[in-house]
Amino acid sequence: MRAITVNGTRCRAARRWGRILAARPGAVLAAALMAVAVSPVSAQIALTIADPVLDDLRARVADLLRSMRPADPDIALDATRIIDDHGLWREHGTLILRVEANCRDGLCMTVIAQVTESGLVSQVTLNADNLVAFTDYSFPLWGEGAYPIHIKGAGSTGTVLWLRQGSWVVEACGDCFMSAEERAKRPSPPPSPPQPSPTFEEFRRSLGLDP
Q: What is the pairing mode between strands 28-31 and 167-173?
């Protein structure tokens, strides 16, 4: 598993997300298409979905795949990878898994599931790459603060997931996984035109002096 931390500690973002996911298990999916990017001032951690399915999860993952992948459940189970880090599923009951079978152009079935004693409950299903980024900084969404999860798609694109009032909101982001080289090649925005200097009379009026 590969982890990358930017401007913050490795554990803080994932622990914050663990508390949020535990407190607000979502079951309803709302969709919106907007472009967003992770703030450079937030603590961020990026994890690859690369861990094998553990023995104490295997039966529950198998049951989930039998319902979601009835055409190839056994192949899918052997090809499934998870994020086994920071207690997200052990302590907070949220499992992110990826089925690396019958993928298309590097994009595979990726599921966020709620872990229960009896099984896994699928909450969000995506066709995605294997990189997931968390942040501990809340962003305003429809009048509330929310914490985004970024899941990489094709190239520099991705999907942003927000948990809000017990529902998942899904956004598309066009450049949230750009490499440093790609960002360096982006043209800088044109400078703002200089503001004209005030006339002497305008300056007097700005001071509250009589014209």
A: parallel
